[in-house]
Amino acid sequence: MTLSEIDNELSSALQDARSASWSVRAAAGRRLAGSAEEAGVADVLHRLLLDGQDTAVTRETAEALLERGDICGLRMVLVALSSADDGTSDYLDGAINDVCCQSEEGLAQLEELSSVLVSDADDSISNEASRILRVWARR
Fold it and tell me: CA of 71: how far to CAs of 3, 38, 111, 135, in Å?
């Protein structure tokens, strides 16, 4: 894929993130997760993680970020968890369970990443990472 094609795909996904259709927004969240470090994408992903219209958008975006298997993806989900209402929190926790807690390898990776994030400068993230370690990492 050329740089121009990548830019076009990113622009298209950013536009789709504003769609009235939940399924288009959910697909946009999945497509944008791979570019979470790009300028402007993190804010859009945060909005999709906390989508007030449909929890499927929240779930798809969270799963895609967690499937990255890195600090960036987990950190974004923890940021959303720190400000989510109870219902949205349930869907974000469900994504963590389904993506990270179905194998010993997944649990080990979740524990490793959360162990790094407990030292995050943002207290809300470090608190969520500590909760993750208490709830899931010691299963």
Answer: 25, 15, 11, 18
